[in-house]
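Running this now, will post back.
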Amino acid sequence: MKTIAIVTAFPPGTGSLNEYGFHLVNAFAARDDIDKIIVIADQYNGEAPELPLDSKIHIKRVWRFNDLLAGAHILNALKSSKAEGVLFNVQTASFGDSEIPAALGLLTCAAAQKLLMPSGVIMHNLVEGVDLSKTNLAKKPIRQKLVNAASYFVTKTMLMSGFMTVTLDSFWEILKQKYKAANTFMVPHGSFSSGETTVPALKQRARIIVTMGKFGTYKRLERTINAVQNLNKDLKPSQKIKLVIGGSDHPATPGYLQSLKNDHQSDKNIVFHGYVAEEDVAQFFTQARLAIFDYDSTTGSSGVLHQAAIYGTPAAYPMMGDFIDVTEREGLTGFNFKPLDQSDLEASIKECLDNLETGQAHADNNSLVSKGVTMDTVASIQLQLLRKVKAGRFNQLRQAKNAALRVREVYGSPISADG
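Update: finished.
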């Protein structure tokens, strides 16, 4: 298998999982046994040119978010690509924040397997793992019930793909117990490469904290902003904390960030950075002593948390949901606070800024953990699975004693580095 396709959001577009798609594609391009990667990517409205990429990588931008025909465009692009297999890098809302386009896009994974070529799915979340009352469906109980019902059909159909991998043990348990799936595996999120970036020690960084994401639904900023402002009341000008907010509105909450920016425009210590381009990610994190993750709920393994880890920025996050899973499964550590508790969040911020030794210990641990499961490892595992689907030997995996693929074990033996 020398030519593969990857369906994913891709920068400079700002779609969900675009950073993950970028690093996954580059990990495949770095392999000597891959000659060509066709990226079936999302279209975007920006003026930014395509990123400089390896000559193996070919970008085809054919689908749009919330387009009912996104799946048809993807299948047409796959048919013309002459790829030997395809990976879908997706989550529940990759193709839309409305139920119908979102579902139709996800069904393309199984259609590709049945009609065109061996296919695999990297699924970053499941509806069953999301508290819908904390999303854009809050106060819409009927729609929540409809989404839960439809999601079963969509997930069951997606499992007709060659295989599906998930990034958390809890998701794999859902697929195993609820769906009785035999072609699903747990493969950790993987860490992004820091490249040539110099990672300064925390004591060399200013009193800056950062947060990044798509805000407005379960990721909100009011508590974090209030916590910083409350702490700053008792600090001298030279000791003030600066909060830098990177990211954009969640598609379901347009105008959320602009409204907050208007409310806090007089506070120079609250900075709205906007979308963080791929080339700016390293500087965004290495400027800060702490990264904040103040979520009302969780929807999967956080790519931003892994980015903070690789750039040596300790994190503060609530001990709930998927954060517990990542902490226990991957060994990441940080400053923890009670969910939805502003005073406890303030205590975590203060502890980090006042105790750089502890913060540096978290940073060093997370950096080391991140180097253990790189995107190169993830790409190797995904390629092994895709090749087994193509070779028709996938039943061996389905009958394996340990059906959860845990990086170090396939059929009880170590995974080879070259796949």
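The chain has 14 helices and 13 strands. More later if anyone needs it.
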